[in-house]
Write a structure and sequence with these properties.
The chain has 330 residues and is of the alpha/beta class. It has one domain: TIM Barrel, CATH 3.20.20. Helices cover 36% and strands 17% of the residues. It contains eleven helices and twelve strands. It has an eight-stranded parallel barrel with strand order 3-4-5-8-9-10-11-12, surrounded by five helices. A two-stranded antiparallel sheet has the order 1-2. α1 links the parallel β3 and β4. α1 crosses α2, α5 runs parallel beside α6 and α7 packs across α8. The longest helix has 18 residues. The relative contact order is 0.14.
Amino acid sequence: MDYVSLGKSGPSVSALGLGCMGMSGMYGPADRAESIATIHAALEAGITLLDTGDFYGMGHNEMLIGEALKGGRRDRALLSVKFGALRDAAGNWLGYDCRPKAVRNFLAYTLQRLGVDHIDIYRPARLDPDVPIEDTIGAIADLVKAGYVRHVGLSEVGSETIRRAAAVHPIVDLQIEYSLISRGIEDEILPTCRELGIGITAYGVLSRGLISGHWQKGAAGKGDFRAMSPRFQEGNIDRNLALVEALRRIAEGKGVSVAQIAIAWVAAKGKDIVPLVGARRRDRLAEALSSRDVHLSADDLAVIEQSVPKNAAAGARYPEAQLAHMDSER
C-alpha cells in the first residue's frame, strides 16, 4: 500500500480508503460478520482510512466499526466521520443540523458508539443552510483544541463554502463524489481545493456499483438506495450500462476488471485524490486493492475518457430533491 498526505495539513493516509456506508443497509441487507471481516482485511492490507457517518444505519455503522476495531486495531485506523444529517425512526431524512451545540452533541455520541477517545477527521455531511459554515467549522475547531478531533474535513460543498471554511481552520480534505461518470468537481471545486492545499477523498468511484462491471439491471431490492437513484431508472440504466460495456472492452484489453479500471482512473487524476471503495465483502475488497497494480498512461486515460465521455451518463447522481439542497451543485 502506498501512503499520501491528505492535503497540505493533513495526516498520512493509505492511497485507497474503505467507505463503510454499505455495511449498514443503504444498499440492502449486509452480512455483519462479513462486514467486520472486510474491515479487518482492509487493515491487514494496509488501508488506514475508514469512512463512516453517524447517520449510517442511525448509529449502526459506527457501532459496527467500533466492534471491528477491538483487539488493538484502533491505532491502525484513521476514522473519518460525517455528522449533521437528521433521520426519524422510519429512516426518513429530515434535513441537517450543524449548529455548534449540535456538533458537540453529535461528536459525544459518535465517540461512545465507536468506543474511541478521538475522531481523526470530522466533517459536516452537508452544508446546513440555516447555519453559517464559519460557525460549524469554529465548533469543530474547538473540539480540535479540546483533543476530541484531530483534523477538519468538508463534504459536498462548493468553492465559496470551501474558501470560507478554510479561513476559519485548516481543512485537510473535501469528501465528494468523483468517478468517470461524475466529473463535476473538475470545473471549479477541484481547482479550488488544489489552490488551497486541500485533498480530495472521492466516494462513489464505482457510482454505487453502476460502473463496477458487476451490476445487473433490476438488481436493486427493498431498502436499496439505488432503487430511487436516477441513473438506475428505466430509460437511463440501459444507456449507462452501455458505457460500462465500452469500459469493459478497455479493461479486457489490459487484462483487468471494469472496477479496477474505474478505480485506477480516479487514482490517476492526482496524488491528492484518495478513492474510497465501498466494498462490503472481502472478494470485492480484493478486487479493489488490485486496482493499485493498474498503471494508466496518458494514452490510456485518453482512450478511457473517449469511451466514457464527460457528462455521458444518463440521469443525475442523486434525485432532484436532494440535489436542490447540495451546496456542491450550485
